[in-house]
Amino acid sequence: xxxxxxxxxxxxxxxxxxxxxxxxxxxxxxxxxxxxxxxxxxxxxxxxxxxxxxxxxxxxxxxxxxxxxxxxxxxxxxxxxxxxxxxxxxxxxxx
Amino acid sequence: xxxxxxxxxxxxxxxxxxxxxxxxxxxxxxxxxxxxxxxxxxxxxxxxxxxxxxxxxxxxxxxxxxxxxxxxxxxxxxxxxxxxxxxxxxxxxxxxxxxxxxxxxxxxxxxxxxxxxxxxxxxxxxxxxxxxxxxxxxxxxxxxxxxxxxxxxx
Lengths: 95, 154
Prior knowledge:
The structure holds 2 protein chains of 2 kinds.
Chain A: E1 3-9, H1 13-23, E2 28-31, H2 36-40, E3 44-45, E4 55-56, E5 59-64, E6 69-73, H3 84-92
Parallel strand pairs in A: 1-2
Antiparallel strand pairs in A: 3-4, 5-6
Chain B: H1 7-25, H2 31-34, H3 38-60, H4 70-91, E1 113-115, E2 121-123, H5 124-129, E3 144-149
Antiparallel strand pairs in B: 1-2
């Protein structure tokens, strides 16, 4: 599809690495332990992580090669995530 | 005449416990049963039927069945379990902060530079320009990047 997926959370690099190894993920996982980038994207969810840490609320952004946001998914319910079909539709529009 | 054990009451209670627990242990893994927990509501419905039959037996046929004390207690507990389940599904999981200032369609994605799983720092512009794959057909950069922010602590 030509789209590079990048996962971002407050997990430290070694925690994400363990997750990738357990699940066989090969795409990029980035660590934002101080939630700076999460704040920049206004996705901070204060105090609901383990031990009261701040974490990100779930969200996906499709960014084209010029750096412009082309698709956003901000779920209203943590249990409901974007389905693969929705993302593929959005990705096709980037041709 | 010895009164019989009112197993409908106990079955109803156990099914409601199963309805609650099975969501988190099993059904939450599949989007079709996670997004709206219809299987679990069916199980709660079955539990309700069992409890209603059990209560009827305990009170209308009290000479044959036990359960005048256990019945109301189990029915109340099962109702509380259902209530807690609905709270978890529809109230608590929606307690998300508003993301009014999150980037919208048409805006530039804010730049960042974060370490990957090997500790190597990667920036948004690098991710947008570094070719993916090793075949010569993909020597240009990707068409786009999908940023997936998740809660972490999986």
